Amino acid sequence: MNFSIEEWGKISECFVEMFQGLGSIETSEEMLQFTSIEPYVATGISLSRQGKLAANMPLHNLDSTFNRVQFDNSLESLTLIGETFSYTYRIPTELLERKSA
Fold first, then answer.
1. Predicted local distance difference test score (pLDDT) of residue 59
2. pTM for the structure as a whole
């Protein structure tokens, strides 16, 4: 599933499905945000309709710009692709175990 940033509605649908039941999900016409909840691993990702990314995984933070979003078929990771940039966010195993329970 590969979408340009102009396909915000489809990106939003996949984003919600990917993170459903794993923490806090906030969606709007301009922003998509996921944040895990305690006691599970602290992680989060925010995407803006303008192509801005902010990701927070253990041991690193990321802030960059993208124009395409690619979700893997299992909805366990998404790749954000920009002109000179590519970043893959994977749902941590601890959270995936919660999804399958």
1. 46
2. 0.85
